[in-house]
Structure formats: structure tokens, C-alpha cells
# Entry
Amino acid sequence: MARPVWSGTISFGLVAIPVKLFHAVRKKSVSFNQLDERNMARIRYRKVNGETGEEVADEHIVKAYEVSKGSYIVIDPDELEPFMPAATKTIDLEEFVDLDQIDPVYFDTAYHLAPDVNAKPYALLARAMEASGKVGIGRYVMRNKQYTAAIRAEEGRLVMSSLAYADEVVDPAEIEAIAELADIEVSDKEVLMAESLVESLSADFEPWKYHDEYYEQVMTLIEMKRDGEEMVAPAAAAEAPKVIDIMAALEASVAAAKASRENHPARRAAAAKWGAKDRAGSDEEEASEPGSSAATKSTATTTAQKKAAAKKSTAGKAAAKKTAAKKTAARKTTSKKTTAKKTAAKKTAAKKSAVKKSA
# Structure
């Protein structure tokens, strides 16, 4: 269970919010004790006089500052007392700034801030800071030392980081190898290749992928030795050949990165999925290509359909002609009958007329 390392209040304006401070990072390392192999007793360190080699008692030990080689200024603890920062138990926020204005090089130790006593003011401040996107900058005192802090809101909680002072940050201009970079010339092709390498290796940051392999291997060795087991040391990794040609190195790196991405299980699954779709599409294209078996079948089917349609059309036309001929013959027969009737009627009328005249 985590324990608080400090407790106090966040203070800004007339607002005071009780908080507790917890380490946000637990450093892991392997610590060894020095023993005398003859009897496995602990080796102790003694405070001895550098000239005589005699052990010195604590009451004879004083603090001093070396101003030059072998020259010291002795400082009495009482002389330091007036300069000691007052332990006010408060984090005094003086201003709020944008997070991107703080260079990451200034961030030092990280802490979780938890509410103490009343959680509502804490929650209110966290939500307000998260909504504004601002970071609170303030000062606090812990273990007789004053620190500058940056407090930011993250998912409804507050995280604090102690900050390095400006005069503690090393100016890059002081490093000769960095200053010489201004004289280095690179071609546009080299820049494009380097950008391609960066792009091929781009991914979301997943911190759990990275771990201290040395620590894990040493702890495994200790556990196996404790259990009486023997551990086989891993084979030493072969030293990578030094590549002088920067372009060759970039091209090889890009190719390796692409190959690694293509062999990723998720990438292979996606490729298989899209490959199935492509095969389905190619089958459709193949069916439409001349000379293919599918195309031949399709053509044969189409030809048969056309022939059947042509036969139906011919039969239909023949039937239509027959029907038209019958209608024409019927009309002619009807016309002849009508003419014959008219002629017979005329003859009858003429006979009647002749009989009347003779009478």
C-alpha cells in the first residue's frame, strides 16, 4: 500500500485544498552488500582522517566548502539556519501556464496528488484545470529544501512534477559536439530517406513494451541461486557491423522496418482479409476476359439465348404473315360476294321493269 511522503495544502488566491503527496514512480535497482568472504560478515565504512588514517568521532566532523584545490571554507550549521526555507506545508501556486511552454528537460520527480479530508475542492480544481488545459506553477518546501512544481490535471486527478531550476539546466551551446552541428550539411535525398525511416517506425507510445531487462535477469539469477538452480547465461549478442555510408544504412533500416511491419500478425490478418476480396474481384474480371473458360461459357449461353430469340422472332413473323394473308383473302371473298349480290339485284330489277312495260 502506497504511503504519502508529504501532506499539506494547495494554495492559490484565497483557496486552500488539503492534499497528500505520493511517489508516482518507484525506481527499481539491484542493491548488493559487500561481505568478507572468509566469514561472510558485512563490510562497514568508517570515517577516518585522510592524513593519519585514524577514525574520527562525529563531534570532530565539520562542514566545509572547497573554494579551490585543498582550500576550504568552514560553515557552522547555526550560520545556515537563517537561510533554511520555512516548512510552510503549502504548495503556493503563483500562475497558470500552457503545458507545451514547459520544455520536458525541466521535469524531474513525479508525484500523485491525492485529496485529504475534503475531496470536493480537489475535484473542482482538477476539472477546472483540465477544462482550461493549464498547468499550475508554484513552490513548496520538503525536507528543508525549496522546490518549484508544475501541477497538471489528468483524467480528473492532479499530478505534480518537481522542476529543475533554469540555472541547473545545461545550455546545449556549452557542448562542443552539439555546437559543431551547425556546420554539418545533409542533402535533400538524405533528409527524405531519414523521414521515410521515421515514418516507417511511427507508432503509438505503449510504455509497457519497455522494461529493465538487466534488472529482470539479475533478479531471476538471484531467485534461481536461492532455489539451488543453475542459470545458463544468455549468449552474447553479436556486435552489429559499423556502416559508414549513411544512405546505405538508412535504406537498410527502412527495408527492415517495412519487413517487420509486414510480418506483424495484425498486418498478416488484414492482408488475408483483403486478399480474399481481391480474389473475388479477380474472378469477376476473369469471367469478363475473352478466352477465359468463364467467358466462353458466358458467350455460349448468350449465343444460345440469341438463337432462341431469333427463332421466336421468325416464327412470330411467319404467323403474322399467315394471319395477314387470311385477312386479305377474307376481305376479297367478302367483296366478291357483295358484288355478286349487287349484280343479281340489278338483274332482278331489270326483269321487273321489262314485265311492267310489256303489260
